[in-house]
Design brief:
This protein is mostly helical. The chain contains four helices and no strands. The relative contact order is 0.17.
Length: 101
């Protein structure tokens, strides 16, 4: 996956999931978040969910740990692995959001 495709894929993930994530922590949806900003948003949501006493929210917090790792690895890792890492991040983000709702 070339750098431009990776950037577009990362942006698409951020656009798709930022509104839902920001809602969980009562923040405005970030406009055009950077990759680092999107990962930071995931981490902030994960921290809030981790402090919840409900089991389903704690499970969602654990589910959000994976996409932050996958996205970081996609940004810093070998280009050969990026498509797989981004796909895994998308799956975990979707599962976490479903677990919260």
């Amino acid at each position: 996956m070339d750098t431009q495709t990776r950037a577009h894929t990362f942006t698409a993930l951020a656009v798709c999931f930022s509104a839902d994530l920001a809602t969980f922590i009562a923040e405005d949806t970030p406009q055009d978040p950077s990759p680092a900003g999107f990962i930071d948003l995931i981490d902030r949501v994960r921290n809030v969910l981790g402090s919840a006493s409900l089991g389903s929210l704690q499970e969602a917090e654990e589910e959000l740990d994976a996409p932050a790792t996958y996205l970081t690895d996609a940004l810093n890792g070998a280009e050969d692995d990026q498509a797989t890492l981004l796909a895994c991040a998308r799956t975990h983000l979707r599962d976490a959001i479903e677990g919260i709702n």
